[in-house]
């Protein structure tokens, strides 16, 4: 696929030109350059991430209350954890949240991004307005609003009554409150929307024009040009939004007035981890939880990365 | 608004079709707008309600708007001028933005554009750091910064940003750089540009939407960050806005929710301003990139 | 700390300083240090939780102290309750807690066990801190295993806060010594006449169950565990659940919705059990008038009540134990501090401060009258020093009680869950 009409000095017909300075010396220079560019990350990783990560991995196999030295307990934390009804509850709540919230949020974000990618009057204003929820999302005031919107006789309740559904407010109801949380997540579609928009802007106009000349309709243009062209960004959003959904914390904390309830109905995984680590000072247990999450999300990530060969289109050949 | 390319001359038929589409477009956009803005309007309305009406109040707007919530802020919070919280938050947010943009783009360039030994392994490691919940790193990191005697300074809050530990942004930029036409930087390399030149004059300008996106997200995250400042800052005059907000809460007495909402609204102003100032570049990115 | 490590740390610091400078951070790099300086001035970090009025009052008392002790500087640190303990735990585990801080009975053993709290007896013996003149024996609230690890600044007790208008309309008058039966009959009258619930959810409040148990010769906590049986609790929660179903106790779904407002001030119910010095919040939140009523009894006499306290504690590792003790001494004994603080942290704990302050507003007058009545009505019991992990058990009690109320957990299963969680908490 030709992407750039006047790419300067591109060797004709050569898909993968040799590296500028081929050979062993060139490779060594590339290695050096790579590590130099990476040096901030490497320093940060070694100083701030690797140490704490290894520490927490060790804690996962200990009983550790933060004050007395950790005591090795082998797999005890994990066996306790798997039998802990609250842990099981947190897994159930989190999975439900991830599965419902992520696709809905991304669909909305992509839909609105496509809408906003068209050049219309006032589009800048719309864009800013749609991003508003993400700006205030972490603010304490959101807790108040959300509780008010999803209470008895508030707008959501009145809306659902018109539709003939009468379950009352969602906030105090253990069976529904999680969906108020899901709604909060979807409402904050601004971040993936902006990323989609930025991605859409990278698609060269010429491709659409060429397709239009070929007589392709909007649907075909979307499937054949837009989707492949923004697939790296789509992949990024899918991956990151799922990871974020697995780690959701702030909104559960705010909506449920810091307790992740009622009746543990919004006890998302990280909230339970937080309670164990910071309220109950069971760092061993919390670390075991953390690493279980890392493994689980890592698995999901690996599957997604595996799958990207099938549907993600990169300009750079191979990885 | 500048647009990327001028469309080819169109027939009147297409133009008419576009006008019809325009109506549908605006209807759709307005619908989304209404849903999205309802809660926002609620917050604004709440800030003009008397404090005791805010919680559990179902009305969108106050029956009789009061200014007390805002005027109360002028006296400061717990004896600390409100401006001090803003200056502190601003300092934190600006440093965070600078740190993230510089360090993440360098790192991302290496991942996306340089073939070096161990790249895949390091990339996997970096993605791995995304998976670890932040809370388990908190205590070991606290001990580290305490041993460096950096508690009660901004250093623990921004050090990670300057060291590209925010894998989210590195990853975002990698995805963008990998999406860039390979021919461009290869051409630059063939012209004899070193990596630094290629990074600076070819790749960086093209990655501008991602840089701006990262900058916006970083600014907002830093501005709203609660846990970091809570753990690392001790002196109330060094507190950020998000910590200042909590001073209105009182489990044992009267919580001043009115001022809390008013302040959280005022706290939005810099964030919205930052977003408004830079969101334009998200879109103009391609127009100015020389990639026409 | 050895010298070699010190040098090493210096070098690291220098490197970090250089790095910070290049990052443009030099200006914000403060001195975390030990607070000592060349001219003999000592700096103490003083931390508390609470709202704005408390912060403003305490700052005044600090200014007063600094004026009288020019060689001691106080650095205030404050935030709300939840954030306070999260931050405190991080700081304490990192070896960096404040020198002096506000404390409560639920955290004494926990942080004593972890070696964070200073035994202030030594400082009292050295004459830096007076343990005299504490009212009603509240000094004992800060004692654990013969150590004085907290100095009470105030005293308070549980009370029944009632919606005065609702009680009046229903024609119900609470009296000292009324029994639980009489109390629930009163709630029934209110429900019949006013169509609102009587109570907001009494059976999830650990401190109220504690009183009930004390009336029956038990207590919620022993020194190391729970002072009641699973059957006791099953019964308590079964009764509670029955009263939710009958509407005597407010619908937990609605109670949840109005949080962080209290269901009492939201008008969902006519009464709520809480600490008497918290009662000021209802006036600020609700539309009605509120007053304090006595705790129901089992036998017409014993309410099981005792005086609880907020206290001040010092960090065992502080570099300035003497100054910390002098500061605490000033804060609990100085009459002027008493007039500034008022009953913000409960009725003032020492006679010097109690005598110096005369409440002028209705709320504080009410609290004072209530506590005098309670003290006059019978012997106040002694507080049980809570075992380490009590804070976790309290949170669990509230949460699991909520599950019972919502019908999400059967009382018997709920009691079992609480016992199993308590076991883990005490072990931690």
Automatic annotation (TrEMBL), chain A:
Q: What ranges does the record give for the region Disordered, renumbered to this chain?
A: 1-25
Q: Which CDD domains match?
A: TM_PBP2 (cd06261)
Protein's recorded name: ABC transporter permease
The main place the protein resides is membrane
According to its record, what are the GO cellular component terms?
plasma membrane
**Which organism is the protein's source?**
Streptomyces antibioticus
| Organism superkingdom | Bacteria
Localized where? Cell membrane
Q: Which InterPro entries match?
A: ABC_transporter_permease, MetI-like, MetI-like_sf
Identify the PANTHER family for this entry: ABC TRANSPORTER PERMEASE PROTEIN (PTHR30193), ABC TRANSPORTER PERMEASE PROTEIN YESP-RELATED (PTHR30193:SF1)
One GO-annotated biological process of the protein: transmembrane transport
Concerning SUPFAM superfamilies, the annotation shows: MetI-like
Question: Which part of the chain is the ABC transmembrane type-1 domain?
Answer: 91-304
Matches recorded under Pfam families: BPD_transp_1
Give the membrane topology: Multi-pass membrane protein
Indicate the transmembrane segments per the record: 32-61, 97-117, 129-149, 176-200, 221-240, 283-305
Assigned protein family: Belongs to the binding-protein-dependent transport system permease family.
Sorted alphabetically, the keyword list is:
Cell membrane, Membrane, Transmembrane, Transmembrane helix, Transport
From TrEMBL, chain B:
Q: How does it sit in the membrane?
A: Multi-pass membrane protein
Query: Which regions span the lipid bilayer?
Result: 23-44, 90-112, 121-142, 154-177, 198-220, 257-278
Q: SUPFAM superfamilies in the record, alphabetically?
A: MetI-like
GO BP, one annotated term? transmembrane transport
The ABC transmembrane type-1 domain sits at: 86-278
Determine if Membrane is one of this entry's keywords: yes
State the CDD domains in the record.
Answer: TM_PBP2
Q: Where in the cell is it found?
A: Cell membrane
| Gene Ontology cellular component terms for the protein in this record | plasma membrane
Domain of life assignment: Bacteria
InterPro entries in the cross-refs: MetI-like, MetI-like_sf
Per UniProt, the keywords (alphabetical) are:
Cell membrane, Membrane, Transmembrane, Transmembrane helix, Transport
Can you tell me which family this protein belongs to? Belongs to the binding-protein-dependent transport system permease family.
What is this protein's record name? Answer: Carbohydrate ABC transporter permease
- Species source reads Streptomyces antibioticus
Automatic annotation (TrEMBL), chain C:
Source species, domain of life: Bacteria
Q: Name one Pfam family in it.
A: SBP_bac_1
Q: Which Gene3D superfamilies match?
A: Periplasmic binding protein-like II
PANTHER family the UniProt entry points to = ABC TRANSPORTER SUBSTRATE-BINDING PROTEIN, ARABINOSE-BINDING PROTEIN-RELATED
What name does the UniProt record give this protein?
A: ABC transporter substrate-binding protein
Please name the taxonomic classification of the source. Answer: Bacteria, Bacillati, Actinomycetota, Actinomycetes, Kitasatosporales
């Amino acid at each position: 696929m030709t992407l750039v009409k006047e790419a300067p000095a591109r060797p004709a017909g050569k898909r993968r030109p040799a590296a500028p300075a081929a050979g062993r010396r060139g490779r060594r220079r590339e290695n050096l350059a790579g590590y130099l560019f990476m040096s901030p990350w490497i320093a940060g990783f070694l100083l701030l991430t690797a140490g704490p990560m290894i520490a927490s991995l060790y804690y996962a196999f200990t009983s550790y209350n933060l004050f007395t030295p950790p005591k090795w307990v082998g797999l005890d934390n994990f066996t306790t954890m798997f039998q802990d009804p609250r842990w099981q509850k947190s897994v159930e709540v989190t999975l439900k949240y991830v599965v419902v919230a992520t696709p809905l949020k991304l669909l909305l974000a992509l839909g609105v991004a496509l809408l906003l990618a068209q050049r219309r009057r006032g589009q800048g204003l719309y864009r800013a307005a749609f991003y508003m929820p993400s700006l205030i999302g972490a603010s304490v005031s959101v807790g108040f609003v959300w509780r008010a919107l999803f209470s008895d006789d508030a707008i959501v309740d009145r809306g659902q009554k018109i539709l003939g559904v009468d379950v009352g407010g969602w906030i105090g109801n253990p069976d529904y409150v999680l969906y108020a949380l899901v709604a909060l997540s979807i409402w904050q579609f601004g971040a993936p929307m902006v990323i989609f928009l930025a991605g859409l802007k990278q698609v060269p106009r010429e491709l659409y024009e060429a397709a239009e000349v070929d007589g392709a309709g909007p649907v075909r243009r979307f499937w054949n040009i837009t989707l492949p062209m923004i697939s790296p960004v789509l992949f990024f959003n899918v991956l990151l939004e799922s990871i974020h959904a697995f780690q959701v914390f702030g909104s559960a904390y705010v909506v449920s007035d810091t307790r992740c309830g009622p009746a543990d109905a919004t006890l998302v995984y990280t909230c339970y981890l937080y309670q164990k680590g910071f309220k109950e000072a069971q760092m061993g247990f919390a670390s075991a939880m953390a690493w279980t999450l890392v493994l689980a999300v890592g698995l999901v990530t690996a599957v997604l990365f595996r799958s990207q060969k099938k549907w993600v289109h990169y300009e750079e050949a191979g990885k | 608004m500048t647009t990327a390319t001028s469309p080819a001359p169109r027939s009147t038929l297409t133009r008419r079709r576009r006008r019809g589409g325009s109506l549908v477009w605006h209807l759709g956009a307005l619908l989304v707008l209404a849903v999205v803005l309802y809660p926002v309007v609620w917050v604004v309305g709440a800030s003009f309600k008397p404090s005791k009406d805010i919680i559990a109040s179902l009305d969108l707007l106050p029956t009789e708007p009061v200014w007390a919530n805002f005027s109360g802020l002028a006296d400061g919070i717990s004896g600390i001028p409100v401006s001090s919280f803003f200056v502190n938050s601003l300092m934190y947010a600006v440093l965070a933005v600078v740190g993230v943009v510089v360090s993440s783009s360098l790192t991302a360039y290496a991942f996306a554009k340089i073939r070096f030994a161990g790249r895949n392994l390091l990339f996997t490691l970096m993605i791995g750091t995304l998976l670890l919940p932040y809370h388990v790193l908190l205590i070991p990191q606290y001990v580290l910064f305490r041993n460096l005697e950096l508690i009660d300074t901004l250093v623990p809050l921004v050090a990670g940003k300057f060291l590209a530990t925010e894998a989210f942004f590195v990853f975002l930029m990698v995805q963008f750089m990998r999406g860039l036409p390979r021919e461009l930087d290869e051409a630059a390399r063939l012209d004899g540009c070193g990596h630094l030149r290629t990074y600076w004059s070819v790749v960086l300008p093209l990655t501008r939407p991602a840089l701006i996106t990262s900058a916006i997200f970083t600014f907002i995250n830093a501005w709203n960050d609660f846990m970091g400042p809570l753990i690392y800052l001790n002196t109330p005059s060094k507190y950020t806005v998000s910590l200042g907000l909590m001073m209105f809460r009182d489990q044992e007495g009267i919580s001043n929710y009115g001022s809390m909402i008013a302040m959280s609204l005022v706290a939005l102003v810099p964030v919205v301003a930052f977003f408004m100032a830079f969101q334009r570049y998200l879109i103009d990115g391609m127009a100015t990139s020389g990639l026409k | 700390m050895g010298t070699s490590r010190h040098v090493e740390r210096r070098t690291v610091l220098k490197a970090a300083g250089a790095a910070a400078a290049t990052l443009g951070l030099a200006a914000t790099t403060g001195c975390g240090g030990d607070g000592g300086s060349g001219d003999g001035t000592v700096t103490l970090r003083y931390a508390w939780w609470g709202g704005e009025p408390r912060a403003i009052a305490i700052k005044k008392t600090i200014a007063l102290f600094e004026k009288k002790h020019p060689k001691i500087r106080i650095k205030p640190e404050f935030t709300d309750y939840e954030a306070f303990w999260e931050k405190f735990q991080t700081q304490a585990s990192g070896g960096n807690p404040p020198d002096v801080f506000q404390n409560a009975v639920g955290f004494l053993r926990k942080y004593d066990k972890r070696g964070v709290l200073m035994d202030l007896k030594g400082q009292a013996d050295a004459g830096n801190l007076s343990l005299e003149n504490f009212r009603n024996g509240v000094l004992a609230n800060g004692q654990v295993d013969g150590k004085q690890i907290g100095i009470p600044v105030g005293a308070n007790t549980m009370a029944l806060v009632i919606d005065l208008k609702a009680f009046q309309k229903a024609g119900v008058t609470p009296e000292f010594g009324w029994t639980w039966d009489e109390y629930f009959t009163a709630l029934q009258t209110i429900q019949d006449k006013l169509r609102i619930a009587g109570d907001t959810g009494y059976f999830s409040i650990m401190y109220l169950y504690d009183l009930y148990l004390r009336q029956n010769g038990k207590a919620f906590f022993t020194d190391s565990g729970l002072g009641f049986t699973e059957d006791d609790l099953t019964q308590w929660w079964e009764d509670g659940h029955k009263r939710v179903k009958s509407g005597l106790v407010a619908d937990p779904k609605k109670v949840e919705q109005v949080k962080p407002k209290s269901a009492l001030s939201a008008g969902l119910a006519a009464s709520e059990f809480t600490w008497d010095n918290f009662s000021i919040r209802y006036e600020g939140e609700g539309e009605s008038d509120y007053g304090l009523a006595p705790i129901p009894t089992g036998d017409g006499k014993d309410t099981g009540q005792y005086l609880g306290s907020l206290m001040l504690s010092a960090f065992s590792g502080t570099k300035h134990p003497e100054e910390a003790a002098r500061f605490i001494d000033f804060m609990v004994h100085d009459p002027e501090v008493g007039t500034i603080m008022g009953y913000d942290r409960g009725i003032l704990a020492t006679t010097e401060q109690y005598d110096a302050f005369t409440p002028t507003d209705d709320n504080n007058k009410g609290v004072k009258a209530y506590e005098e009545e309670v003290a006059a009505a019978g012997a106040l019991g002694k507080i049980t020093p809570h075992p380490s992990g009590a804070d976790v058990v309290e949170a669990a009690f509230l949460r699991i009680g909520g599950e019972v109320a919502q019908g999400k957990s059967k009382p018997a299963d709920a009691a079992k869950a609480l016992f199993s969680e308590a076991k883990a908490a005490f072990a931690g």
